[in-house]
Design a protein that fits this description.
Strand content: under 5%
Distance between the termini: 28 Å
Helix content: over 70%
Length: 231
């Protein structure tokens, strides 16, 4: 396995472990390490290639994380991370819906079908445009819901930590335990439900889920990278 993907995998494992430990033990140090793991996930590829901008950005962000840890704000910052990631994911879909741009899943469908987005069948283009919108909305709603929990959970929410008295609408334990399941079930439900609906909407296009996955796998990684670089 190439070094960058391996280090990213290590970073993902470290983030989830340290984030869990930080919330469980209320440790600013663990929270700082978790935030540092996120920096590794984002920048490791360019760091290994010794890109000057990436090295500078990494140094600045790590310094900021150290300051947050010393000032006891690392744990509070960590609570916003899921919301930030969900918003970024929503914007990845949403910004491609701007007039004059190609919706993300229109691009994905054209890569799978090995045609240009402009020559994609009209009904497929319309469907994948709506599908792109559905993902943007779902991820945006999940981001807002997660932000609500991060702010109002008691006793570990951001507002409670800031000394603001809030109504005990949701406990921190419930938020920590159930929010990941809300995300997993929602995302998985849309993935699976959409696939079966697509099978009904476009019969015979794919033999089964495995056939669809194989078609996705045949698309060169460079093509996916170029598609996402344009979003």
């Amino acid at each position: 396995m190439p070094m960058a993907p391996l280090l990213r995998l290590i970073g993902v494992i470290a983030y989830f472990w340290m984030a869990h430990r930080a919330i469980e033990t209320e440790s600013e140090t663990f929270a700082g390490i978790a935030l540092g793991a996120l920096v590794l996930i984002v920048y490791v590829g360019r760091i290994l290639e010794l890109h000057v901008k990436a090295l500078i950005a990494t140094a600045v962000i790590i310094a900021a994380i150290v300051v947050l840890t010393w000032s006891h704000f690392a744990l509070t910052t960590l609570l916003f991370v899921p919301t930030i990631f969900l918003l970024l994911a929503a914007s990845l879909f949403g910004r491609t819906l701007i007039k004059g741009r190609t919706p993300l899943l229109v691009t994905a469908a054209s890569l799978v079908e090995n045609v240009s987005p402009d020559t994609l069948e009209a009904d497929v283009r319309q469907y994948t445009t709506r599908q792109t919108r559905a993902w943007a909305v779902l991820l945006g709603v999940l981001a807002v819901f997660n932000l609500f929990l991060a702010l109002f959970a008691v006793p570990d929410g951001v507002l409670t930590r800031a000394g603001v008295v809030v109504a005990p609408w949701v406990s921190s334990e419930a938020a920590t335990r159930f929010m990941p399941w809300v995300i997993y079930v929602s995302v998985t439900g849309l993935l699976v439900g959409e696939f079966f609906y697509r099978q009904h909407r476009f019969p015979g296009r794919y033999k089964n889920a495995l056939d669809y996955i194989q078609k996705l796998a045949r698309v060169p990684m460079k093509s996916w990278q170029e598609a996402f670089a344009q979003t």
